[in-house]
Write a structure and sequence with these properties.
The chain is an all-beta fold. The chain has 2 domains: 252 residues, Sandwich (Jelly Rolls); 223 residues, Jelly Rolls. Helices cover 1% and strands 35% of the residues. The longest helix is centred in the C-terminal third of the chain and has 7 residues.
Length: 495
């Protein structure tokens, strides 16, 4: 299995406009607002950025936003089981619009910008609903049923409840993703130029712009997720910064769900498409090889090796990440692999000797650091306490990798030693490396969960000291000098 393509927001340098916050939506999480008297029920625009964490193959479609009164009265945008995007509205039991893209949204490593712009007063039916993905208008649909001319849409109807992250039902089938910059414009049909632009140096990359010049209309709102409170006011995560004070109430959203992983500085996560078993994000999964917490935690309760890998592959620079375990057992390995390992998942990281595989792992049970199943040295075992924190410092300028337990580098390692590689394990040059973890549960040993922190720690990864890297990015327990969080701004500068 080859690594997925990394999209544009992972590769551009800082251009002056920054989105600083996002929020993660897991199972049954959402924000909500009740509509007032609209400016125009026939004309409005919705724009948002989302990193998708779940790519279901069953269990129902995943609503992204919309409303639900009953099966005869509902309107929502949703991610379908086949990875395509759908838009649906049913009123009084009659289908008013129904769209399904031919394009598949399957990249877990980057943010998508999605814009739905409606103006049913248009004489030409194809102008009544326009859809843009990453700055380009979608013109090819698997299903294409436009609303009637002058249809008054329910999306913007007075007294209806508009939800971001799902609909009114709490059935566990809502979208699982990280949102930033969610804007509702009442009374205007806008195109992509109102919300973003293509990067001058990288013309294929669509990036956000300031929305300060937009007017939002009566029902309009702008969610920047700047605050962390739960109340429906200016201090809540659902605070409206459009000037309309249309603050959203929140459901099943914790303070730790506010993230710094955004469409202008995108952090690595575990890759749902490279998961050994089906990745199903959510806070309440069965954990049988599943991903959760925005694809930053992974575990298993069955007798197998559950391997997970970072979304970003690294070829140069100095990089740092941390891992924690949730159990008092010690069947874990944390380390680095090349992409050949993705087809050889019947072993833990460090153990494989398959042809072409390059893998180095720090094994919890005996403290050994293994390189292609050969012990480089034996350090301290870990995992006997859930507080154990494992650090990986990856120096691709000098080609060494270092491992630490609770801030103490094993083998008397010094990640700042440069070309001498003191205590480090020599690694192959000219190789793309992925950070990863293995959890292994015997049939009787119960649940095994590993939490990853690439600079944007999930719920369950408690940080007591709070250290950023030299660029001010990331939130780590430790932060070795000269090493960087695995995020898009650092990759553009140092990768």
């Amino acid at each position: 299995m080859s690594a997925p393509l990394i999209l544009g927001t992972n590769s551009i340098k800082d251009t002056g406009f920054n989105v600083n916050n996002s929020y993660f939506i897991g199972a049954d999480a959402k924000t909500s607002i009740t509509n007032t008297t609209p400016t125009n029920t026939k004309k409005f625009t919705i724009s948002f950025w989302i990193k998708i964490h779940e790519f279901p193959t069953s269990g129902g479609d995943r609503p992204i936003f919309g409303y639900y009164s009953d099966s005869s009265n509902q309107a929502y945008m949703y991610l379908r089981n086949d990875g395509t995007l759908g838009i649906f509205e049913n009123k009084s039991g009659s289908t008013k619009l129904d769209f399904r893209t031919s394009q598949v949204l399957r990249d877990p490593s980057s943010f998508y910008n999605i814009i739905m712009a409606i103006d049913t007063s248009q004489a030409t039916d194809s102008n009544r609903l326009k859809l843009y993905i990453n700055g380009s208008q979608v013109t090819s649909f698997a299903a294409e049923n436009y609303p009637a001319q002058d249809y008054a849409s329910q999306w913007n109807e007075n007294s209806l409840v508009f939800n971001v992250g799902g609909t009114a039902t709490n059935d566990g089938n809502h979208i699982k993703g990280t949102f930033c910059e969610f804007a509702f414009i009442d009374g205007q049909q806008l195109d992509q130029t109102s919300f973003g632009e293509f990067d001058e140096d990288t013309p294929t990359v669509f990036k956000p712009i300031s929305l300060s010049d937009l007017t939002f209309g009566n029902n309009g709102f702008f969610l920047e997720f700047k605050e962390s409170g739960s109340s429906a006011n200016s201090s809540g995560i659902g605070a409206d910064t459009s000037g309309n004070n249309r603050h959203h109430s929140v459901t099943n959203i914790a303070a730790t769900d506010q993230r710094t992983d955004t469409c202008t500085n995108n952090f690595a996560t575990y890759n749902a498409l490279l998961s050994q078993t089906a990745g199903v994000d959510g806070r309440h999964g069965s954990w049988n090889g599943q991903l959760a917490e925005g694809n930053l935690s992974s575990g298993t309760a069955v007798d197998n090796y559950n391997n997970q890998f970072s979304t970003f592959g690294l070829t140069s620079g100095k990089w740092y990440a941390e891992f924690k375990m949730s159990t008092t057992d010690n069947n874990f390995s944390h380390g680095i692999v090349n992409d050949v390992f993705f087809s050889n998942l019947g072993s833990y990281i460090g153990q494989s000797t398959a042809s072409g595989v390059r893998n180095i792992g720090y094994y919890s049970q005996n403290g050994q650091v293994l390189k292609n199943n050969s012990a480089e040295y034996t350090g301290s075992s870990y995992g006997s306490s859930s507080a154990d924190l494992i650090s990986i410092a990856l120096d691709l300028d000098n080609n060494f990798v270092y491992f630490a337990k609770n801030g103490t580098y094993q083998n008397s390692g010094d990640p700042t030693s440069g070309s001498s590689g003191t205590g480090g394990v020599a690694i192959d040059a000219d190789t793309t490396w992925f950070l990863g973890s293995t959890s292994h549960s015997l049939s009787s040993s119960g649940l095994k969960i590993s939490f990853a922190n690439f600079g944007n720690p999930p719920t369950g990864f408690t940080i007591s000291s709070g250290n950023a890297d030299g660029e001010g990015f990331g939130n780590f327990e430790f932060s070795p000098s000269g090493y960087f969080a695995i995020c898009s701004k650092n990759l553009a500068e140092y990768g």
